[in-house]
Design goal:
Elements (H helix, E strand, L loop, with lengths): L1 E6 L10 E3 L2 H7 L6 E2 L9 E7 L5 E5 L2 E8 L2 E5 L5 E9 L4 E4 L7 H14 L7 E16 L9 H6 L1 E17 L14 E5 L1
Antiparallel strand pairs: 1-9, 1-10, 2-8, 3-8, 4-5, 4-8, 5-6, 6-7, 10-11, 11-12
Length: 199
């Protein structure tokens, strides 16, 4: 269960949320080609981003302008801090100030968390989004790092099964997420208003 959520309090704290690539292009057209070179964002201060490596060969997380790329290697997960990576999907914003909010004990599942974030968005007049949020605390999480095999048929299930996956029990985590009610099949899945990566 997470204990703290950081969420933007007003639009003046965050630049606009930008994105390149679309989940529906990946899922329905099989297009996982490069859409942006991370290097082009390397000079952005207080940059927060998440996405997928071109070819769906890994996951991208950028926190306060520090990049972390996770991919599958011969011995398991490999981590890189190299900016010389291209993304097929990336959502990003610059945030220089955060507001802290405690998460109540009633938030136990991802659906509870999404509703809590929506409640906070209503309080800050950011009801539809998009906006970026951060979480820290202890949680149990099912994780996945994609490693796509060219030629597979794109489906939600085949994406889940492609790459490495596992479960962490009661681990201390830092999570970066983006929320929007307007970006389903663009950078959130069709059944959710959030997209999150963790370390």
């Amino acid at each position: 269960m997470f204990v703290i959520i950081w969420i933007l309090a007003c639009s003046s704290m965050v630049s606009s949320v930008n994105s390149v690539g679309e989940l529906r292009q990946i899922m329905h057209q099989g297009d996982s080609s490069a859409k942006i070179e991370l290097r082009t964002l390397a000079d952005h201060k207080h940059l927060y981003a998440l996405g997928a490596v071109e070819g769906l060969k890994g996951e991208i997380l950028i926190e306060d302008s520090n990049v972390l790329v996770s991919s599958e290697g011969p011995n398991g997960i490999e981590l890189s801090t190299d900016w010389d990576v291209a993304a097929t999907l990336l959502v990003y914003a610059q945030v220089d100030k955060w507001r802290s909010v405690s998460i109540p004990d009633t938030v136990r599942r991802k659906t509870d968390l999404e509703e809590f974030i929506a409640q906070q968005a209503r309080k800050t007049n950011a009801q539809e989004g998009p906006f970026v949020f951060r979480l820290t605390g202890e949680a149990t999480v099912d994780w996945h790092v994609i490693n796509w095999t060219e030629g597979q048929e794109h489906s939600h299930q085949s994406h889940i099964e492609s790459g490495l996956s596992g479960r962490l029990e009661n681990e201390s985590l830092a999570v970066l997420g983006f929320y929007s009610t307007m970006h389903k099949a663009i950078w959130t899945h069709h059944s959710s208003n959030v997209h999150m990566h963790f370390k």
